[in-house]
């Protein structure tokens, strides 16, 4: 089997991808057995089959992740693995709403004593 192309695999459904994966794994186990026996004719094929298995798994996992992203798109909470990675500092930062929150006392003070605005007049 020649190298599979990822763009071709993306057109397949999840079930078909899993079938392809099983087929590739069987082929790989057969190749490993033939290598153990000492048949060196197919040894070079092991690498390409392993890479094909990796391609199929990659496409399958990408499809799964996009489905989950669409499922949780408008929801209030997202699973941790679907949230943005960012840095720890960014993740722990307060939201804008939390930053603007005031205690009752602060609100009263800011309403009763607003920030004074001064006008500077320049005379010549």
UniProtKB/TrEMBL annotation:
<keyword id="KW-0175">Coiled coil</keyword>
<keyword id="KW-0687">Ribonucleoprotein</keyword>
<protein>
    <submittedName>
        <fullName>60S ribosomal protein L35, putative</fullName>
    </submittedName>
</protein>
<dbReference type="GO" id="GO:0006412">
    <property type="term" value="P:translation"/>
</dbReference>
<dbReference type="GO" id="GO:0022625">
    <property type="term" value="C:cytosolic large ribosomal subunit"/>
</dbReference>
<feature type="coiled-coil region">
    <location>
        <begin position="4"/>
        <end position="34"/>
    </location>
</feature>
<dbReference type="InterPro" id="IPR018254">
    <property type="entry name" value="Ribosomal_uL29_CS"/>
</dbReference>
<dbReference type="GO" id="GO:0003735">
    <property type="term" value="F:structural constituent of ribosome"/>
</dbReference>
<dbReference type="GO" id="GO:0003729">
    <property type="term" value="F:mRNA binding"/>
</dbReference>
<dbReference type="Pfam" id="PF00831">
    <property type="entry name" value="Ribosomal_L29"/>
</dbReference>
<dbReference type="InterPro" id="IPR001854">
    <property type="entry name" value="Ribosomal_uL29"/>
</dbReference>
<dbReference type="InterPro" id="IPR045059">
    <property type="entry name" value="Ribosomal_uL29_euk"/>
</dbReference>
<keyword id="KW-0689">Ribosomal protein</keyword>
<dbReference type="GO" id="GO:0000463">
    <property type="term" value="P:maturation of LSU-rRNA from tricistronic rRNA transcript (SSU-rRNA, 5.8S rRNA, LSU-rRNA)"/>
</dbReference>
<comment type="similarity">
    <text>Belongs to the universal ribosomal protein uL29 family.</text>
</comment>
<dbReference type="InterPro" id="IPR036049">
    <property type="entry name" value="Ribosomal_uL29_sf"/>
</dbReference>
